Amino acid sequence: MEMKDYSDYAKYLVLSDNSRTVLRTDYVYYQNFKVIKEIINSMAHSDKNTYLYEGNIYTRKITSTDAKNILTNIDLCKWNSTTNKMFLVASQVGLRI
To answer: Which of 11, 4, 3 has the alpha carbon at shortest distance from 74?
Structure first.
C-alpha cells in the first residue's frame, strides 16, 4: 500500500514511529494532534502575530513558513527539527501530543 492511501491515523502512527517515540501512539494523543494540526494549518495561511484557540488569544511561536513545512512533513511522515516545532504550539495551548 502506498502512503497516499494511508488513513490519517495510519500516517500519524508512521510519523510517531519516525519521531523515535517523541510522539505518543495513543488515540487520545492523536485527537490532540489533530487539533494542533488545525491550529498550525491556520497559522500557515495567516501572517498575523497572534491566533485564537478556544476563546484565548496566543502569540505565535512559529512562522508561517515553519507552519507550512510542518504540514508538509506531517503529510510525508517525516520527522525533523522543524516538525518538532509543533510542540511549541501544543505546549502553548496546553495539549499533550
So the answer is: 11
**Whole-structure pTM value:** 0.92
- In tens, the pLDDT along 51-70 reads 999 999 999 999 999 999 99
Tens of pLDDT, residue by residue over 74-85, are: 999 999 999 999
The domain total for the chain is 1
List the grid coordinates of 52. Answer: 485564537
Q: Cell numbers at residue 34, please?
A: 489533530
Which structural domain range is residue 20 located in? 3-93
Rounded to 5°, the CA angle 79-93-74 comes to 20
Q: What is the DSSP string of 22-82?
A: SS--SHHHHHHHHHHHHHHHHHHT---SEEEETTEEEE-SS-HHHHHHHHHHHHHT--SHH
Q: Count Cα neighbours of 26 within 13 Å in the Cβ-side half-sphere.
A: 6
